[in-house]
C-alpha cells in the first residue's frame, strides 16, 4: 500500500480560469522520497500543501496511510506529518527548545519526555543541545536555523515529512552539507517524504522518485532519477533535465560508490622523517594526516617533510583546501574540485572521519561512460 496516494486530483483556485493541478495521480510507497519539480508556477507547492490540507483539492482523492485525508480532522492529519519550509517559520520570541517543542506540547507530552526528545533531536541534526537549546532564532546562522526546522518537524516522529524547498535559501556549501546530513538521517528514519524543489540536481540527489510537472500541474513523468535521465518520457522532460546529461550522470553516483578507501595516511604525532620514508616507499608525494579519532587534520607534502626532518607532522601540515562527504554526489565533488582548482578531495563520514578519496579522473571516467549509471532505482 502506498503511503501517499493521489487519485485524479485537481485543484482550481476560486476565480482561476484554469486548474493549478490537473487530474494528478501519483503513488509514493512507504520510505520513498518523492521530489516534485517543474517550472515556476507548475503547481509544486499546491500539490504538497494538499497533502496536509493547507489547500483542499477541488476534485479527486488523496490517501495517506490508506486513509482519505478529507475524512479526518486537519489537526489530526497534520500531527502525523512533519512540515519543513524554506523560510523555516521559527517563532522569534521562543527559544530553540520551545520551537522544537511545538508539536510535543500540542500533543500534551510530559516536560521531561519533551526535553529529552529535544536534546536527542538537536544532536541528530548536528547542533550541540547545551550550546543551542536556550538561544533564540536570531542568534543562529541560516543553516543552523534550517537544522532547527528539520528537528522541529521530526519532533513527534511523524511517518510522513513534507519539505518545501527546505534548503533553498542557503549558500551552496552549507546546502550540500545539509543535504548529505539529511540523506544520512533518512537512511535510518525511512520516512515517506514529499520534497519540493526547483533545482534538478537537488531532485536527482535527494529523490528516490522524481515527479516532473508541467505548468497547470500536469504530470509528465514519475520515475527513478536514473530513468528520468536515461529514458525521459517526452521532449518536455528531456529539455527540463537539460542538455548536459553526461554531467548529470554524476548526480546519480555517490562519492561512497567510487572513492578509494585504501588510503595511506600519517598520524599527527609522527615525525617528518617517518612520513617522508612512508611516502617514498609508497611512491606518494603527499599524505593525509589524521588524529587519534581518525579526524582529518590536513596533509603533508613530501618536500616539506624532507626539508624539515626534525618536525612533527602537526608542525608542517597544511590544511585541506576542500573536503567532501560519502553521501555527496560525484557532481557535488567534481564541482568542488573545479571551483578550487584541485584534482582530488578527501572524503569524510558523518563523524568527520577520513574514509576515502575521490579524484577528478574518477569523475571523468563516469562522464565518459556510454550508459548512464543505474546505481539507484526506485525500488
Ligand atoms: N491562493 C491562490 N489563489 C489563486 N491562485 C494561486 C494561489 N496559489 C497559487 N496559485 C496559482 O497556482 C499556480 C501554481 O502555484 P504553485 O505555488 O503551486 O506553483 P509552484 O510550482 O510551487 O511555483 P514556484 O516554483 O514559482 O514556487 C500558479 O499559477 C499560481 O499563481
From TrEMBL:
<dbReference type="InterPro" id="IPR003593">
    <property type="entry name" value="AAA+_ATPase"/>
</dbReference>
<feature type="domain" description="ABC transporter">
    <location>
        <begin position="4"/>
        <end position="241"/>
    </location>
</feature>
<keyword id="KW-0547">Nucleotide-binding</keyword>
<dbReference type="GO" id="GO:0031460">
    <property type="term" value="P:glycine betaine transport"/>
</dbReference>
<keyword id="KW-0067">ATP-binding</keyword>
<dbReference type="InterPro" id="IPR003439">
    <property type="entry name" value="ABC_transporter-like_ATP-bd"/>
</dbReference>
<feature type="domain" description="CBS">
    <location>
        <begin position="316"/>
        <end position="374"/>
    </location>
</feature>
<dbReference type="InterPro" id="IPR017871">
    <property type="entry name" value="ABC_transporter-like_CS"/>
</dbReference>
<dbReference type="InterPro" id="IPR046342">
    <property type="entry name" value="CBS_dom_sf"/>
</dbReference>
<dbReference type="Pfam" id="PF00005">
    <property type="entry name" value="ABC_tran"/>
</dbReference>
<dbReference type="GO" id="GO:0016020">
    <property type="term" value="C:membrane"/>
</dbReference>
<dbReference type="Pfam" id="PF00571">
    <property type="entry name" value="CBS"/>
</dbReference>
<dbReference type="InterPro" id="IPR000644">
    <property type="entry name" value="CBS_dom"/>
</dbReference>
<keyword id="KW-0813">Transport</keyword>
<keyword id="KW-0677">Repeat</keyword>
<protein>
    <recommendedName>
        <fullName>ABC-type quaternary amine transporter</fullName>
        <ecNumber>7.6.2.9</ecNumber>
    </recommendedName>
</protein>
<dbReference type="InterPro" id="IPR027417">
    <property type="entry name" value="P-loop_NTPase"/>
</dbReference>
<keyword id="KW-0129">CBS domain</keyword>
<dbReference type="InterPro" id="IPR005892">
    <property type="entry name" value="Gly-betaine_transp_ATP-bd"/>
</dbReference>
<comment type="similarity">
    <text>Belongs to the ABC transporter superfamily.</text>
</comment>
<feature type="domain" description="CBS">
    <location>
        <begin position="259"/>
        <end position="315"/>
    </location>
</feature>
<dbReference type="GO" id="GO:0016887">
    <property type="term" value="F:ATP hydrolysis activity"/>
</dbReference>
<dbReference type="GO" id="GO:0015418">
    <property type="term" value="F:ABC-type quaternary ammonium compound transporting activity"/>
</dbReference>
<dbReference type="GO" id="GO:0005524">
    <property type="term" value="F:ATP binding"/>
</dbReference>
Amino acid at each position: 500500500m502506498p503511503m501517499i496516494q493521489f487519485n485524479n486530483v485537481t485543484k482550481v483556485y476560486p476565480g482561476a480560469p484554469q486548474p493549478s493541478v490537473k487530474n494528478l495521480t501519483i503513488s509514493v510507497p512507504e520510505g520513498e522520497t518523492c521530489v516534485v519539480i517543474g517550472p515556476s508556477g507548475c503547481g509544486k507547492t499546491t500539490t504538497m500543501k494538499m497533502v496536509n490540507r493547507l489547500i483542499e483539492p477541488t476534485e479527486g482523492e488523496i490517501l495517506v496511510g490508506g486513509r482519505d485525508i478529507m475524512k479526518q480532522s486537519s489537526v489530526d492529519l497534520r500531527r502525523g506529518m512533519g512540515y519543513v519550509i524554506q523560510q523555516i517559520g521559527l517563532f522569534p520570541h521562543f527559544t530553540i527548545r520551545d520551537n522544537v517543542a511545538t508539536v510535543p506540547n500540542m500533543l500534551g507530552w510530559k516536560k521531561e519526555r519533551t526535553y529529552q526528545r529535544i536534546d536527542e533531536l538537536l544532536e541528530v541534526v548536528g547542533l550541540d543541545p547545551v550550546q543551542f537549546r536556550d538561544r533564540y532564532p536570531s542568534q543562529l546562522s541560516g543553516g543552523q536555523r534550517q537544522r532547527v526546522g528539520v528537528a522541529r518537524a521530526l519532533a513527534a516522529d511523524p511517518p510522513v515529512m513534507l519539505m518545501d524547498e527546505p534548503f533553498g535559501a542557503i549558500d551552496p556549501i552549507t546546502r550540500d552539507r545539509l543535504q548529505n546530513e539529511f540523506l544520512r538521517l533518512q537512511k535510518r528514519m525511512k520516512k515517506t517524504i514529499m520534497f519540493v524543489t526547483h533545482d534538478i540536481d537537488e531532485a536527482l540527489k535527494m529523490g528516490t522518485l522524481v515527479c516532473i510537472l508541467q505548468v497547470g500541474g500536469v504530470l509528465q513523468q514519475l520515475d527513478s532519477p536514473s530513468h528520468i535521465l536515461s529514458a525521459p518520457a517526452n521532449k518536455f522532460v528531456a529539455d527540463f533535465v537539460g542538455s548536459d546529461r553526461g554531467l548529470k550522470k554524476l548526480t546519480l553516483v555517490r562519492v561512497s560508490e567510487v572513492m578509494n578507501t585504501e588510503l595511506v595516511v600519517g598520524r599527527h604525532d609522527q615525525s617528518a622523517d617517518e612520513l617522508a620514508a612512508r611516502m617514498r616507499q609508497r611512491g606518494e608525494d603527499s599524505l593525509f594526516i589524521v588524529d587519534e579519532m581518525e579526524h582529518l587534520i590536513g596533509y603533508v607534502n613530501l618536500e616539506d617533510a624532507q626539508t624539515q626532518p626534525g618536525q612533527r607532522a602537526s608542525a608542517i601540515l597544511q590544511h585541506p583546501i576542500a573536503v567532501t562527504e560519502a553521501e555527496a554526489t560525484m557532481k557535488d565533488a567534481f564541482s568542488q574540485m573545479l571551483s578550487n582548482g584541485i584534482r582530488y578531495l578527501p572524503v569524510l563520514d558523518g563523524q568527520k572521519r577520513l574514509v576515502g578519496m575521490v579524484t577528478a579522473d574518477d569523475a571523468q571516467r563516469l562522464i565518459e561512460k556510454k550508459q548512464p549509471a543505474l546505481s539507484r532505482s526506485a525500488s
